[in-house]
């Protein structure tokens, strides 16, 4: 560690400030479709991985089961996701409906607008560097004891 440089302030607060600002930007854009950013993300995961057991989806998304259930319910109620029988009588599989695929496609167009806005505002080079720094930090932090993420 470079002892000549001493970080000032709280990293947690700085990251939360950045995350709130970035999330608001995406939510404002994706929200035009009637979805929250978390719902768009969930739909995208199910499109990519489904049909999938909710417990496996929670693990893939690195969120808790209760958070997944809370975020799934409005999507099921809207007819965009469905929970059907699994391989045995005790398991269930989550899958996307045709209406859900269409909603995700609509939201994906808004997500692209949001992403291009970030790229334009921060500059593409800075976004690439930010992604690399985040990935590097996540790798380094993976050595810490890992509690369940619950977003």
- CATH level-1 class: Mainly Alpha
Q: Order of strands in the sheet with the most strands?
A: 1-2
Query: What is the CATH T-level topology?
Result: Arc Repressor Mutant, subunit A
How many β-strand stretches? 2
Mean of the pLDDT scores? 90
Major pleated sheet:
2 strands, antiparallel
How much of the sequence lies in strands comes to 5-15%
Low-confidence stretches: none
Number of domains: 1
CATH architecture: Orthogonal Bundle
Can you tell me the overall shape? globular
Structural class: mainly alpha
Order of helices and strands, N to C? HHHHEEHH
N-to-C span: 31 Å
Number of DSSP helical runs: 6
CATH superfamily label:
Winged helix-like DNA-binding domain superfamily/Winged helix DNA-binding domain
What's the helical proportion of residues? 55-70%
Q: What value does the Rg take, in angstroms? A: 18 Å
Describe the structure.
- With 151 residues, this protein is mostly helical.
- It has a single domain, classed as Winged helix-like DNA-binding domain superfamily/Winged helix DNA-binding domain (Arc Repressor Mutant, subunit A), CATH 1.10.10.10.
- 64% of the residues lie in helices and 7% in strands.
- It contains six helices and two strands.
- The protein has a two-stranded antiparallel ribbon.
- It is globular.
- The two termini are 31 Å apart.
């Amino acid at each position: 560690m470079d002892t000549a440089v001493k970080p000032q302030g709280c990293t947690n607060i700085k990251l939360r400030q950045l995350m709130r600002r970035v999330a608001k930007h995406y939510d404002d854009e994706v929200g035009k479709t009637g979805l929250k950013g978390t719902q768009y993300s969930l739909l995208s995961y199910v499109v990519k991985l489904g049909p999938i057991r909710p417990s496996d989806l929670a693990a893939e998304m690195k969120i808790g089961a209760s958070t997944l259930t809370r975020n799934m319910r409005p999507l099921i109620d809207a007819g965009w996701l469905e929970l059907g029988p699994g391989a045995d009588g005790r398991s269930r599989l989550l899958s996307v409906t045709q209406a859900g695929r269409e909603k995700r496609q609509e939201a994906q167009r808004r997500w692209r607008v949001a992403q291009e806005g970030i790229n334009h505002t921060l500059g593409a080079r800075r976004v690439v560097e930010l992604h690399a720094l985040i990935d590097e930090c996540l790798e380094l932090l993976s050595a810490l004891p890992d509690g369940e993420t619950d977003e």
